[in-house]
Amino acid sequence: MASPKIQSLPHAVSELVHDGDVVALEGFTHLIPFAAGHEIIRQGRRDLTLVRMTPDLVYDQLIGAGCASKLVFSWGGNPGVGSLHRMRDALSTGWPAPLTIEEHSHAGMANRYVAGASGLPFAVLRGYAGTELPEHTDTISTVTCPFTGEELAAVKAINPDVAVVHAQRADRDGNVQLWGILGVQKEAVLSATRALATVEEVVDELTPVPGAIVLPAWVLDAVAVAPRGAAPSYAHGYYERDNAAYKAWDATSRDRESFTTWLKTLQEDAS
Amino acid sequence: MMSVAASRSLRDGQSCFVGIGLPSTAANLARRLHAPALVLIYESGTIGTEPDELPLSIGDGILVDSALSVVSVPEIFNYWLQPGRIDVGFLSGAQIDRFGNINTTVIGEYDEPAVRLPGSGGAPEIAASCREVIVVMRQRLRAFVSQVDFVTSVGHGSGPGDRARLGLRGAGPVRVITDLGVLEPDPDSAELVLTALHTGVTIEQVHAETGWELEVSPDLRITAPPTEQELTTLRGLRTVGSSS
């Protein structure tokens, strides 16, 4: 018998993601939770603070659909292709909803998640010195080392209301296993108040895989089966990154009309 | 020529933190030519990758399959980059200034930019912590500016001694390789000066694409043209998923 943690994706999203929440969908080019992002769009969530190191297509879609009021990030683009047109439109004209930003470097964001997962109020790193970001981002500061007197960068912990990650598989108890590029998924889940994992499949037993990590069922609130749930990004060992889709998004997202057509198709195409 | 010149500046056995695009092409070219033991590290956490095609993003599966090790993103920045373990950081940008500071954040004012760029990514800490930094960028007047609109990654700040004052432990940009030639910081002023022209390029061309009064080194070199082997290898580099 499957654990009650294993739920349908629409049910899990409606239970865990609320209007106004701070939401982190993580996955560093790999295992990006697209299916969950699309479900958030379908359910019409509003006023979300979207947190993600690399807001790429999935956040461009959420922003274009009007789900977000704030973006917390460290690199916003379509990797190897170009800009995020919906993000740019929201920032420059406020369409379809005004968007504010809180901008960091990758090292800063990664350490903010580490602090959040560790139950600490902030993290220390060698970073940002001489750059102009600290003038614009109030979650970057400095701290003096009590042992050496050295001044180091300090970044505020991230503790999202809900973290969403995608993984290769779960067992019937809801323990989740993922491997390949690990990104900050573990840190995102452990830093969040609530956590949802989507998976390619549920299996009887999690066979060990070199380099894999396991998120125990008891740190997750729900596990939802979403085959190809990371596409057009990829799930190592299951399917490859659809580079053509990333390139095609550039044209789809470039103007509001073609994006709106895409959005209608998504909303009608209930998974 | 730019990719070939950039690949030549990598030495065998070095470890290299690679950004996507031009740096990735140059680093993979070097590994196929004179530097087979070059250790390629991508910010996605892949260490010692040997991809047989070029990745489109810094996290393509091809980087994992060929990697010696794959670590999480906090680990790659905290354990591998931050302590100064990496020899060379390979960067690019939208703007670079006379002191090698790089902008990948905004063109114009931060709050109301003319152009919103992708942002920092790993670049600020790569520029701070690698033992040296090599920049690969097309030389255009709008990109080679006297002062960048936004300092995303620190080069030599506003002059000599700035890096030390900021506590940045790497040497910073030691070379800027463009499609026209090579710029290197003057040892006294830390300002970039023209130290090499690629074959067939004139000093006037370089001046026309530089937004400050670029000084020319008295020992100006001419880059050797690409060899047959370099060109063949470069043309043989396919990007994953490309049709050609």
UniProtKB/TrEMBL annotation, chain A:
Keywords for this protein: Transferase
Gene Ontology MF terms: CoA-transferase activity
Domain of life: Bacteria
SUPFAM superfamilies tied to this protein: NagB/RpiA/CoA transferase-like (SSF100950)
InterPro entries for this protein: CoA_trans_fam_I (IPR004165), NagB/RpiA_transferase-like (IPR037171)
Family the entry assigns: Belongs to the 3-oxoacid CoA-transferase subunit B family.
Listed name of the protein: CoA transferase subunit A
Organism: Pseudonocardia broussonetiae
Organism lineage string: Bacteria, Bacillati, Actinomycetota, Actinomycetes, Pseudonocardiales
From TrEMBL, chain B:
UniProt key word Transferase: yes
UniProtKB keywords: Transferase
Keyword Transport: no
Pfam families, A to Z: CoA_trans
InterPro entries: CoA_trans_fam_I, NagB/RpiA_transferase-like
Superkingdom of the organism of origin: Bacteria
SUPFAM superfamilies (alphabetical): NagB/RpiA/CoA transferase-like
GO molecular function ontology, one term from the record: CoA-transferase activity
Family per record: Belongs to the 3-oxoacid CoA-transferase subunit B family.
Protein name, per record: CoA-transferase subunit beta
